[in-house]
Structure formats: structure tokens, C-alpha cells
Design goal:
- The structure is a single chain.
- The protein is about 35% helix and about 15% strand.
- By secondary structure, it is of the alpha+beta class.
- It folds into two domains: about 90 residues, 2-Layer Sandwich (Phosphorylase Kinase, domain 1); about 180 residues, Transferase(Phosphotransferase) domain 1 (Transferase(Phosphotransferase), domain 1).
- The strands form two sheets. Strands 1-2-3-5-4 form a five-stranded antiparallel sheet, with helices on both faces. Strands 6-7 form a two-stranded antiparallel ribbon.
- Helix 5 packs antiparallel against helix 7, helix 5 packs antiparallel against helix 10 and helix 6 crosses helix 8.
- The longest helix is centred in the last third of the chain and has 17 residues.
- The model has no long low-confidence stretch (mean pLDDT about 95).
- It binds adenosine-5'-triphosphate and magnesium ion.
- The site of magnesium ion has 2 residues, from loops.
Length: about 280
């Protein structure tokens, strides 16, 4: 995937016949494009395998992630998406959602000496998006601020490639090996350290949303470790369950604290979080 400028696979070009296209990200075995077509605007995700680097082992599963996400979208009963295979891996397209993500939206709260408090309405939008998924019996597995797109009418929770809760075709499935460690619940971190794998759960999603709200509002991680800590060092800090005394101001603060409880059973469900906020 290096050398030549990235291109959309021909199958995707045939399906969408883009009028305009823009590469949004290309990293760690995944490209995302924004595509304008006669059918509407779409996010196109294209996966390819990545080779090992100094700090990242080879990850053939990145090639499968878009098809796995497509299979999840199908199980969730969404329409207006498609997925399939290309030479190096798999792809999907799904509706493009306009709007900032949670981290961008709360940037003013993170300015030094900021008096802007995180807006409860935005937090509630994220809670509702996650509650909708949990209500269908699924866990997301990769809840993070960038995955909440705050649109004019509703908030969308994107990137369902790691979600668990229903059947995924064996050929597109792969084990869950944890997520971004800043958002990883202690029990997930412990399992990944011990076995290399873990089971995404709704309780871990609630923790991840608590950590997402905290980071977006304050710029601080839920657990303290040096910026340059290796991934296993970060996981060991998270697994220890020792929270750092960072609080969100205002009414959100107590709720975030409960969501970050070390024991999964002590965390509120997403519906309880929603009730407390509304
Ligand atoms: N449906 C969508 N609508 C709008 N933007 C999207 C959509 N899907 C993806 N994006 C944009 O592309 C970025 C990456 O998408 P996504 O998280 O799904 O891919 P990824 O390869 O799993 O990335 P990462 O490894 O960072 O999680 C998102 O943070 C968002 O900015
Ligand atoms: Mg993602």
C-alpha cells in the first residue's frame, strides 16, 4: 500500500460512481473516503493487511474489518450500505454523517482557564446512540470520542467493526484484541494482557463512554501513565484499577465517576446514565 497514491477499489467505483471523493484517513490498514455520488454522500471504508512494524505486530485482520462491520450493520437492520471484497481485503460503504465528533465539539472546554462547561445535551446524544445499540443486544467494543458524530438531528455512533452481539460470517470474523487503551475498561485490559484477547461487553462500553466524556471535557485520561508508555505498560496501569483524581465539572462529574468504576457491576447501565442526564 506504499508508493502509489491510494485509490478506491474498482468494485466501489462501479457501485457508487462518485461525482467527488476525498480521502479522510489512511492509517493502520484502513482507508476512509468521503464520496459524493448520485445516490447521496457515503463513507467508504477500505481495509488492507498491515505488515509488522517496530511497535505494531502484523495485523491481517485490518483487511477484514470493513466486511465485518458490514455484516454487523446488516444484523442491526440498517439499510443503505453495502460491503464486499477487493484485491487486498474488504470494503464497505455507509451513509456519511455530517458534524464534529465529541472531542472536536468540546474543544472550547479544554482551553486553559476555560469557563465553558461540557454541554449535557451533547453527552445525552452520545448516551442515546450507545443505548440504541445496547438495546439491540450488542456491545460496541471500540467506544471513543472520535466515534460519536454529533449531527444536527442526532448523534451517530460509528465504527462497528469490533461490535459483538449477533452472528458474523466466519470468514470475516476475528478475535477482539482490545481497543485504544485510554478507553479500555480494567477487566478488558487484564484479559488482553493475560490472553491477548477479550470479550467486548456493554459494561466495558459504559466505562469507555465515561473515559470519552472525561477526555473530551478535560483533556485528561482516566488513568495516569506517561505519554510515551508502551501499549502493555498502558494496559498494566489500566488493569491496576487505580484511577487518577480527575473530575468533570458540573452535573456530569458524578456520573462519569460512576461510569469509570473499576468493577463492571458497579457501573450504571447506559439506560441509567440516560435517565440521570435527562
Ligand atoms: N459514516 C461516517 N460519517 C462521517 N465520518 C465518518 C464515517 N465513518 C468514518 N468517518 C470518519 O473516518 C474516521 C475513521 O473512521 P473509523 O473509525 O470508522 O475507521 P477506522 O479505520 O476504524 O479508524 P480507527 O482505527 O481510528 O478507529 C472517523 O473518525 C470519522 O472521522
Ligand atoms: Mg475507528
Amino acid at each position: 500500500m506504499s508508493g502509489t497514491p491510494p485509490e478506491l477499489p474498482i468494485v466501489v467505483l462501479d457501485a457508487l460512481m462518485p461525482k467527488a471523493q476525498r480521502l479522510v484517513v489512511n492509517r493502520r490498514g484502513s482507508m476512509v473516503w468521503e464520496v459524493e455520488s448520485h445516490r447521496g454522500r457515503y463513507a467508504v471504508k477500505v481495509g488492507y493487511p498491515i505488515e509488522a512494524t517496530a511497535d505494531w505486530p502484523a495485523q491481517p485482520w485490518t483487511a477484514l474489518a470493513p466486511a465485518r462491520e458490514g455484516a454487523v450493520l446488516y444484523r442491526l437492520g440498517l439499510d443503505d450500505f453495502a460491503y464486499g471484497e477487493w484485491e487486498l481485503g474488504t470494503w464497505n460503504f455507509q451513509p456519511w454523517h455530517e458534524g464534529p465528533d465529541l472531542y472536536e465539539l468540546w474543544k472550547p472546554c479544554r482551553e486553559p482557564d476555560s469557563r465553558t462547561e461540557p454541554h449535557t445535551g451533547a453527552a445525552l446524544g452520545c448516551v442515546e446512540a450507545l443505548a440504541e445499540l445496547h438495546g439491540k443486544g450488542w456491545a460496541h467494543g471500540d467506544v471513543q470520542p472520535a466515534h460519536f458524530i454529533i449531527g444536527p438531528d442526532r448523534t451517530h455512533l460509528i465504527d462497528l467493526a469490533l461490535a459483538r452481539g449477533g452472528h458474523v460470517p466466519e470468514g470475516y470474523d476475528f478475535p477482539f484484541r482490545g481497543c485504544l487503551v485510554h478507553y479500555e475498561a480494567p477487566e478488558i485490559a487484564r484479559s488482553v494482557l493475560a490472553t491477548g484477547e477479550a470479550e467486548p461487553t456493554q459494561e466495558a462500553d459504559v466505562y469507555a463512554l465515561g473515559a470519552s466524556l472525561l477526555i473530551s471535557a478535560t483533556g485528561r485520561r482516566a488513568v495516569e501513565y506517561p505519554d510515551d508508555a508502551s501499549r502493555p505498560e498502558q494496559r498494566r496501569a489500566v488493569a491496576s484499577g487505580k484511577r487518577r483524581p480527575v473530575k468533570v465539572d458540573g452535573e456530569l462529574g458524578e456520573l462519569v465517576h460512576a461510569m469509570l468504576s473499576p468493577a463492571p457491576g458497579d457501573r450504571p447501565t447506559i439506560y441509567e446514565v440516560g435517565k440521570a442526564l435527562s
